[in-house]
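Handover notes (outgoing to incoming on-call)

Open items:
1. citrate lyase holo-[acyl-carrier protein] synthase: sequence verified, structure written out, both below. Nothing else pending on this one.
2. Nothing else urgent.
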Amino acid sequence: MITYFQERNIMIEELVDISDYSKGKNCSVIISLSVYYPTADRDNLLTKKYVNEMTKILQNVLDDKLLWQVFKDSNHGPMIFMGLDDDAISLKKLMAYFEDNHVLGKWMVIEVFDNINHIIITRMMAGISERKCVICGDSLKKCSQGEKHSVFDIIREINRSYVEYKEGIELF
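citrate lyase holo-[acyl-carrier protein] synthase structure tokens:
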């Protein structure tokens, strides 16, 4: 099983690569977006739907700050990178809000890279509490490291969340 934190490390590596792309594009922050999916088959129809839906949502929310975006389809699954002109800490807080409160955002790995200081902005740096497990509400770190939930349970919940979103139950 691939843990949330392994997925996060992949995104950080991809962010470093994409920061080279952003040279000369005058963006102060880069956001990366992917889906936490616990198997090696992360490039599938469901993960593409998740990334597509969250991209539309973030484009609407970040419209006036969005300078560019790049879609990357890899064996790690679909990823979106967005270059923005904004304060990195404020954006981290907004992205954490999506991760914590939006039915799709709860399964997303959203990283915020300060392109001026060349650092990943962590929840701790932004004064935000650590992520909670979507399934049980415990610390995500604890559940991920202990592999507390089965791959089947995680994928079932990822699917359930998408169906809930598409049925319009999400009141975000």
